[in-house]
Structures are given as structure tokens and as C-alpha cells.
Amino acid sequence: MSDQVLSFEDALERYDPTFGLEVHVELNTETKMFCGCQNAFGAEPNTQTCPTCLGLPGSMPVVNRTAVESAMRIGLALNCQIADWCRFARKNYFYPDMPKNFQTSQYDEPIAFDGYLDVEVASPDGGSETVRVEIERAHMEEDTGKSLHVGTSGRIHGADYSLVDYNRAGIPLIEIVTKPVAGTRASAPAVARAYVEQLRELILALGVSEARMDQGNIRADVNLSLAPAGSGELGTRTETKNVNSFRSIERAARYEIGRQAAVLEEGEKVFQETRHWHEDTGVTTSGRAKSDADDYRYFPEPDLVPLAPSREWVNELRTTLPEPPRERRARLQAEWGFSDLEMRDTVGAGALVLVEQTVAAGAPAQAARKWWLGELARRANETETELSALPITPADVARVQALVDARTINDKLARQVLDGVLAGEGDPDEVVAARGLAVVSDDGALSAAVDEAIAANPDVADKIREGKLNAAGALIGAVMKSMKGQADAARVRELILEKLG
Amino acid sequence: MSDLTRLTAHQQAELLATGEVSSVELTRAHLDRIAAVDGAVHAFLHVDEHGAIEAARAADDRLSKGEPASPLDGVPIAVKDVIVTRGLPSTAGSRILEGWVPPYDATVTERLRAGGLPILGKTNMDEFAMGSSTEHSAYGPTHNPWDLDRIPGGSGGGSAAAVAAFEAPLAIGTDTGGSIRQPGAVTGTVGVKPTYGAVSRYGLIALANSLDQAGPVTRTVLDAALLHELIGGHDPRDSTSLTDPVPALVEAVRAGAAGDLSGLRVGVVKELGGEGFQPGVEARFAESVELLRDAGAEVVEVSCPHFEHALAAYYLILPSEASSNLARFDAMRYGLRVTPEGDPSAEDVMRATRDAGFGDEVKRRIILGTYALSSGYYDAYYGQAQKIRTLVQRDFDAAFAEVDVLVSPTSPTTAFPLGDKLSDPISMYRQDIATIPANLAGVPGISVPSGVADEDGLPVGLQVLAPQRADDRLYRVGAAVEALLEERWGGPMLAQAPELEVAR
């Protein structure tokens, strides 16, 4: 049942990809979109519910003002128009985790529309280029509950039974929809990824969402179609749902390009449908058929009055906007003293915010960059997770660097501290204590080890006495070995020179 | 004090205030009356003897300390089953909600409890308020106290019949296209549909959200005003709730009861009469108009040309909203659950439950609404209906530029025999021809008794409509008509109703 896939290079030789993204952002408001229930992650199932978010007969929605503000701020930050007048609409379909069997959303009257985000992507020549991704709309809606299908398959079909948690039902979402992005050719998957990364950066800067992809705060659907190269046409698209990491967005787009190209090469038609992304195997599989005739029977929500944000309100919100992403990147690069290449790599790794937060926690910028793009990027890659999803905070990283700077640990031990933090053993200080990782700078213990090394290597000792100080390295190595790496190398050197000087 | 139940709510409140009667006595008297006659009338789906007596005791406690919670503290009330009541079953007349006990109170319920009114029980209704006869209740029809073989109107037949049969002095109704006013007309009682948004809809199981409005069901205009003032006013839980203060309704009743309507301009709606209206209904209406003129009102004929399309527009908007509202009844969280044989999926359970739990009229309207909202049909049906709605609103605007209130018969006929229109939905729908325009425009309306038809001796109602937020005008005019007619009859119209046989 696995699909034929053409190689990416072959596919691009014959076809032009066009993509679009629908990104759902879960807002971090105190309460839900239409009721006073807490909006918090991880509570006991069905404890954050009320008549309204359970859709009990007779219950009614009331719009969360903060959510409306967040929606408008997102819209403004994406250079959108803010509607003078708009309404909520009901999107009608049946699903067990949707309490009313309609989703209160917006249809043809979104709160924000016609904007853009300038996205920076690495160009093939090693520099970076800016791609303008046009935003069609950003609208408000509510989340559904969460179904857990219990049984061997983990899917609704073939489940023994299903459990539903309505805590998530009614949590405010902003859906941001791009216009079709054409002409990016081989960069299409990277642009798609960069768009979501930089959108997330903007959302974080706005402070309107926790923006954690691993907790589903940001969820992306990738629409993709192919047209014969140079034809300028728009092919039939597929919609790959819930692609929930940056890396997967790129992979899913690449996969769909290859898969659709293979279908077209066979002289067949791409079937308009939703597809599921499989993180483990890196493929998409057919979901349900989707057509433009998909009928949600939208109509204006009669329980809510239209929303008519005054221009004063909109202008007031405009003053609360964070620095635009491009200017922000330029400022940070200057502040940090990064080269263009270093900056590009930082942005490309999705580490801009992490580095910024690590610097804010007290680490030097180069050290922050070194940890996130070096050791931690390697760990993320190994475990196929996002950098930001690693179970370590920027404050932890800054603390590790501080311990190195204080010579409590050295670089080698620092890696072991990171291991401990990533393994959930606690914060860096706790890991150092529990694992006994602190370097020994106690002169008593070090002095004994140095004497031992001198005794065991008389010829080396002689060379040092003769003034060949470079030979000290061999003795330091011997001491480090005997102390299992936990010695303060600089102090060891000092002791050797004192004893032999 | 065997006649306690015959007193108006206002009179009952006066006796409570002076301590001549206790709320427990009063509540007990109504519970006894329910026990005696409700077997024949079937106005109630659920009677809460325990809860009502307990609330009455608490009221007596307050009254004895001279600290009444409201002007109606201690006066019992019946509540239409479409309004949710914490701890009391709320089925909306549907099998699909059989046994469902809501965990919360509607705002109206809260205000009744806060005002100290013992809730006697929940009244019968057409399933989800879809009907004009209460015959579409899943729990059997209510019978008209004037003639037990006839309908009590609908959808709020239970509330109207309970009041008409002296089972309760007050009741709460809801009116989407006439469900308070038409039952009022055919049972000889008073029913008010307030301005849209004047009474909170929070906790009202929605039929059609843009049309629904809860209001008082009583025997006198003054009682309606007292109840309306208690339940009305802004509610932050209902976004469509008006923020204005409740107008001085009781004051308007006192002004109107003097019988002087000098300076009032009254419009007779040309389109709400003639073909389809029973002769006895038209005769009583003509008399009422004369009465208004005699009381000093200036009466003119006005035309509302788009009213003729109102019924059609209503039967697109209502089913559209209803089809979506009723989607939540899917057996997943509450209410009936029917599990088919074999290894059914969630969808199979939903299908089987909705098939068994909804009655024919509900299914009919779900199908109509689903169709009207479907892609490709939306503009032709739902969209077009909304345009008609705007035109109806403009008709009202134009009319109210000329006159202060509009009048018409409430219902084109008197109560028809049970079963008469069950196989002819269109003819059933036409019962609401005169009441529907008010819901489409959100304007308030009242139905007051205007006598009995010569041909069948059954009650006829006069409808008075006012501009949005001018509910006080209804009370002024209603009170005047009531006072003048009662003077002519030598007592309330319900005194002309036959005595119900009392079960022993």
C-alpha cells in the first residue's frame, strides 16, 4: 500500500510545487474562547468544563475579549487589515469530541485579512533571501475536545472504546491561512518550514501563545500541489493534516512533491483529499476525500452579536506590537556580534528565541549559540525532536555555562550535565550534585595526584624543570586521567609549575 | 380558603404580605389543584412537590421577618420544560432528553428562585417547542381547560393550560413564533413575548436562537408585568441580552387600567385578517378595536406588505438554526443513548439515538434546515429568508413611524380539536401567521383575552405589538383592554370557562 515516490530532484525537474499553510495557534488566554473555564494544559480529564464548553442544552457562548485582542494583534503583526465588522459562524459537522457538533468559527468574515510575512530562507549560494508569504486571513475559532482511542490500532476504526477529554474544547484558536505560495521551486519545503518557524517566533514575541509545538499549541496543515514546470498552472492539492514539527513540515512537503510527481508521471490525477503525516515512517497516507463541496453548512452564529472593533481599539493594539521580525533579527545580530553565517545558522536551526532567552538568562551570546547549535542540536537530531522541544530550558543552558565559567565544571563535564538535565534528573546544579560531577580544585587531592604523576613520569618532569613548559600537557593529561576528568585543569597546571618551577 | 387558586398572583402576593395566608398553604393549594385536575389537563410533565414546599417554607421565613425577596416572593409558578432547572428534569418535551437533570439553572430560573417563587413543576410543550398545539410533545398532548378535546395551543400549551386551569397563578413560556401568545389566546389567558433580548436566553434550550424569547404566562396583565419585571434585565451570560434597564411595566399597567387611551395611535394591520381568519375571531377583534376607539385611541389602518412572506421566511430561518442547535443530541454526553446490535461505531449510536429520540416534526424541521443551509441552496433559501426578515423589520419601522402600537387577532382561529391538523403541517404552521412577524423583527407582543367566539364559545385573543424596547406600551394598552372588557363581562373571562371535573 505504500505509494510510488519520485526523487525530489526528478520531481522538480518536471513540476512546479505550490504550497499553502493553515496554522492553528492556541492562545494562552486565562480562560476559554466562550466561557470562563481555565485554559491550562495537563489538567485531569474533564475537570475544566462547564455547561457552555460541554454544549449542554440551553448554554450560551460569550466572547473572550482578550482572545479577540490577541487575534487582532496577530493580524496586525502579519500586516493584515482588521475587519470593521465581522461575525462568528457555525461550522456544522458531527464528531464525538465536538460538544455541540458544530464548531464556532469564522467563515467569510474573518477578523483579519490580506497580510504578509517576509520569511528569510537560506539561499543556495550560502546567503539568505527573503520570500514574502501572503496571508489570506486570520480568524478566531474554538478547539475541539480530544479523543483517545483505546485498542490495538490507536485509531478510531478498530478501537475497543474511545475516551473523550473536553478540557481542550473551547480553547481559543487563531487559524492563519496563507495564500498559495508559488515559484519557490526547490526551496518550497524549506520556505514552508521557515514560514512556520518565523511565524512561531512572531507569536512568541507577541506573547499570545505558549507556542509549543510538542504540546500542540501550534499545528500546521500543509497544502501542496504540483503543476507542469513552467506552465504557471495550479494543480490539484492535497491537505496534509497536523504536521506538528518544523522538521516534519519540510519532510512532509518534500514527500508530497515526490508522491504527487509519481502519480502525475503515471498519467493519473492527484486525488483531492486530506492526508495523514506519519512521523515515524516519513510518509503521508490517504485520509478522507475532500472536495470543495465539503459542506459545513456555515451560517452566522445567532447567539453572538457581531464584532465591530473601533479604530481606536485597533490603533491602541498597534502600539503594543513587538518589533518586526526582520528588524529584530538585525538588532540581535548586532547585539550578539554574530557573523552573517552564524546568524543564518541560528535562525535556520530555529534557535533564535532559545539563544535570546539563554542570553537573557546571563550567558554570553557565543556560548549560548555554541550549546544550542552544537551539542543540543545534535541531541535533537538524534532523537528527532525540535530543539525547542528538548526537555531543557534556556535558563538551564545559561546555568551550565555559568558553571563552566566558574570552573566548577569543564566542557567535558558540562556535556554530562546536559545529559542529566535531558534525562530529567533535575536542574544543572542538582545533576552536578547527584552525579558528583564538580571538578576537583581542592589542592590537597590535586597535589597528591600531581606528585603521583611526577613520580610516574620522571623524564617529563625533567623537561619541565629544564624550562620546556609545553611538556606540562602530558602531566596534566595524566592527572586528569587519574581524576576521571574531574580536575580543574588550570589549577593542575599551576601546581605542576609550582612543584617543578 | 378553598379558592386560593382562583386569586391572581398579585392578590396572592397581597395575602402573603399581610400574613393572611402562608406560601406553604398557597403552594399546597396549587399542588392539590394539580393533583385534582392535571390527570385530565396534562399541563405538567414533572411536579416538584418537595422542592416547591421547601421553597415556600423559605419564603414564609422571609415574609414573617418582613424581608420579601421580591414582590412575588412566595407565589408559586410553573416553568416550561424548555427552561433548564438545576436538579429538576428538563426534557423540552423530547424523548431524547428523557430523565436528563440539568446541573445548572437558566438565568430565568435563577431569578425566579432569587425572587422566592416556589417552582411547582415543569410544563408540557411541543417537542423542542416545534408546534402550535402541544400535540408534538413526546409525552402526550395537553388538553385545553375550556374543552378537553381541544388543543391548548403551542408550543407552550402546558404553561397556558396550567394557568387557565388554576394549577398555577403564573408560568414561564417561550415564544419563537407565537408559542406564548397563541396558547394565551386559545386558553383565555395573558401571554407576553418581550422585546428580543429583554429576558435572558441563557438556559433556554434553543429552538431558533435569533427568534426565541422567554416571557410571562398569566391570567392578568398586572401579573404579567410583575413577572416580567422580575425575570427581565441584562444578563452578561447572554450576548444578545439588552443592557437597558427593564421599563416600568407595573406602572404602565396602572396607567392603562384607568381605561383612558387618549392620544394613543393604534394601527390595525391590514394583512392580519380576512381570509383564513374565523368569523368569531374577526368579530371579537372588531369589537376590541371599537373599544380602543371608545377609550380615546386614534385608530388607523396600516399596511405591512411583506408580512405575507413572513411565514415562509420563518420556516427557513427557524429550521436552519434548529437543525444546528439539535446536532448536539448525539448520545455522547447526556440524554438518551440507543446502542444498535453488533459492534456499532459512535456514528451508528448517534444515528440510532437520533432516530429513536426525535419525533416526526423535529425530524421534518432538521431535514428542512439542513437542506436550506446546504451549499448551493444557502443563498436561495436561508439568504433569501434573511432578506425577507429585513423587509418585515422595515414594515414595522414604517408602521411605528405612524402609530404607537399595532393590533391584530393573536391567532386566526379558536382552539381546534386535538388531532385536527396533525396530518397537515402547513395548516398547523398557519396558526402563527399573526404572531411570527414580531419574532422576525424582535418586537414585543402581548395577547390578552378579548371574549369568546360566537360559533364555538371558545376564547379569542387580541394581540398588541409595540416597537423594540417599548414593552411598556403593551402593558398600558393590554391593561386598558382588560379593564374595559372585564367591566363589560362583570369579571374575568376565565370565569366563563366550564368547571373542570375534579379527580378524587
Automatic annotation (TrEMBL), chain B:
GO terms, biological process: translation
Q: Which InterPro entries match?
A: Amidase, Amidase_CS, Amidase_dom, AS_sf, GatA
Q: Where are the catalytic residues?
A: 80, 155, 179
EC numbers, comma separated: 6.3.5.7
Q: Where is the Amidase domain?
A: 25-474
For this protein, the record's Gene3D superfamilies field holds:
Amidase signature (AS) domain
Q: Which UniProt keywords apply?
A: ATP-binding, Ligase, Nucleotide-binding, Protein biosynthesis, Transferase
Gene Ontology cellular component?
A: glutamyl-tRNA(Gln) amidotransferase complex
Key word Transferase present in the record?
yes
Per UniProt, the enzyme's principal EC class comes to: ligase
Name the reaction it catalyses.
L-glutamyl-tRNA(Gln) + L-glutamine + ATP + H2O = L-glutaminyl-tRNA(Gln) + L-glutamate + ADP + phosphate + H(+)
Top-rank taxon of the source lineage equals: Bacteria
Protein function? Allows the formation of correctly charged Gln-tRNA(Gln) through the transamidation of misacylated Glu-tRNA(Gln) in organisms which lack glutaminyl-tRNA synthetase. The reaction takes place in the presence of glutamine and ATP through an activated gamma-phospho-Glu-tRNA(Gln).
Q: Which family does it belong to?
A: Belongs to the amidase family. GatA subfamily.
Q: What is this protein called?
A: Glutamyl-tRNA(Gln) amidotransferase subunit A
- Tell me which species this is from: Nocardioides mangrovicus
Gene coding for it: gatA
